[in-house]
Amino acid sequence: MRYPLAGCLLLAACSDGTGPGPESPLLVLPAVDTIPAESSVQLRAVQVGSRGDTVEVRDVVWSSQDPDVAPVSTDGVVTGTRSGQVTIVALAGDLRGTAVVRVERRFQASDVSTGGAGLCAVDLDGQIWCEGGWGTGVPYPDRDTTDIRTFLAPVSGAERYTLVGSNQFFACALSTTGKVLCWGYSILGQSLNAGVPTPVAPAVTFDTISIQGSNGCGLAQQVAHCWGSFQDDVSTVNTYGVPLVRLDLQEYLGCGWTANGAQLCWETFGEAEPGDHKIEQPSSAGVPPLRGLV
Prior knowledge:
By secondary structure, the chain is mainly β. The chain has strands at 26-29, 32-36, 40-42, 44-48, 54-56, 61-64, 77-79, 84-92, 95-104, 109-113, 120-123, 128-131, 152-154, 161-166, 170-175, 180-184, 194-199, 208-212, 215-220, 223-228, 231-236, 246-249, 253-257, 263-267. A hairpin with a 2-residue loop joins β20 (223-228) and β21 (231-236). The two termini are 54 Å apart.
């Protein structure tokens, strides 16, 4: 990143000499930069000369205001370690200059969720990264939505995942061992809030999940199990013995598909009572006809 400095930037400081003007500040170049995690950038401390050129400043003391995001070496090399933003400070005598470095964690994702609880993505190694610290133990983090890419943090724990979903209250993920772990607020009504991934049904091995609205559902051996912000436990959806092969949870409605492509729907919280948009007893002919939202 280059910053051309042409002409006299500070007219009041101009002189006939070639050195810095009497009011010339300490500049750190580049003043703003974005780097991938695990890469480095060389910063320079300069003063503006009286002819508009830059004069290198020696004996600079460098420091990072957040070394966990990006430390800086004694010669001004900044290395990104985790996603975030950091201010680097340069001191030379009575002069002080700063630069802002953003560190991005760039990766290829196998699954992404953009629900109300924030953006989460599963990388190719099965680790989950979420915007603003969700799932890292930080409650209601302050999120900078101006550049969401630079504020992805890894979800806590050594578990690895295949799917992730989020709604307006919480996020859930399906682990490689078939467990559903969730984090956020009112995951199971008043009985569970979790700053880090926590199993919602440890005894159940799931095949897939769907998260939406204020609820979550998962399929285990073709049976739907649901949980959410207005129920204190995981409930099993009664499909009258009809097996499901796919889920699609909406804001106030859950739906599942049979192997024959028929759709069965139920209201939220897994209540399987007869009525509109709820599961009905299959006819004697077998799989019930297609049902769903109009």
